[in-house]
Amino acid sequence: MNSFFRSDVPSQTAFPVAKAGYPFIFASAFTTFVFALLGLVVLSLLGLVATFFICYFFRDPDRVIPNSAGSVVSPADGKIISAGLVDNSPFFEGSSMKISIFMSIFNVHVNRIPYEGQIKAVQYYPGKFFSANLDKASAHNEHNAVFIETEDGKNICAVQIAGLIARRIICNVQKGDRVNRGQRFGLICFGSRLDVYLPSGVHLKAAVGDKVKAGSSVLGDLR
Fold first, then answer.
1. Which of 204, 197, 195, 196 is nearest to 223 (CA)?
2. Which residue in 141, 139, 146, 104 sits closest to 122, CA to CA?
3. Dist. CA 197–CA 179, nearest whole Å
4. pLDDT tens readout for residues 140-189
5. Fewer CB near the last or first residue (10 Å), C or N of the chain?
């Protein structure tokens, strides 16, 4: 039987919301309240719908993490749009296995660490805002790369990529941090993509078209 663990302390609320979403939620709720005071029924209803949707977008559910040795978990919720070997990547020396996960506005956007280890570097790159499902988004869009070294010396890189609508990348880890598999490390606001680079010898356990969940779905095996 597979065993699981929690990498973060469980939330104390029935519907946990990421802290980054609070300003958006409060602003929408306040605007809706003003519309209601002014008697603007239609605008009040639209504001109420918008407020509930923003709460839904910034939801941050607890996840249980597979405890099997060697398992690399998905760093994001969404759909795998590409998976294959690449050479000469700016995020990985030599050949690597690149897996791209597209997050629609309906997916949970909290990102999680794919494998335990130490953060070797965090590098932010300003850029453009092409649609996140396009190949050129990896190289040209605004992105933030988190480089992880495992305990046995393997390298992994998770790249948060802004999309057409996304305008804010949040990363809560820094160089030198020790991180656990499945641990929350950041968030991208309003539609985006996440690329993960693994050693070329990884045994893939996911394929293009698969829908994955951050922390829970296994992408591959490093053993």
1. 204
2. 146
3. 17
4. 678 899 999 999 999 999 999 886 665 678 999 999 999 999 999 999 87
5. N
Q: Alpha-carbon distance 70 to 76, whole Å?
A: 18
In this structure, what are the phi and psi dihedrals at residue 22, rounded to the nearest 5 degrees?
A: -55, -45
Rounded distance, CA 157 to CA 168, Å? 20
The pLDDT tens digits for 70-85 are 999 999 999 999 999 9
Q: What is the 3-state secondary structure (H, E, C) of 151-173?
A: CCCCEEEEEEEECCCCCCEEECC
| pTM passes above 0.85 | yes
Q: Which residues are catalytic?
A: 192
Helix axes 41-57, 22-37, angle to 10 degrees: 170
DSSP state at residue 133 = T
Residue 136's Cβ-count burial label (10 Å; 0-12, 13-18, 19+) is: exposed
- Joined together, the tokens standing for residue 155 give 């390298």
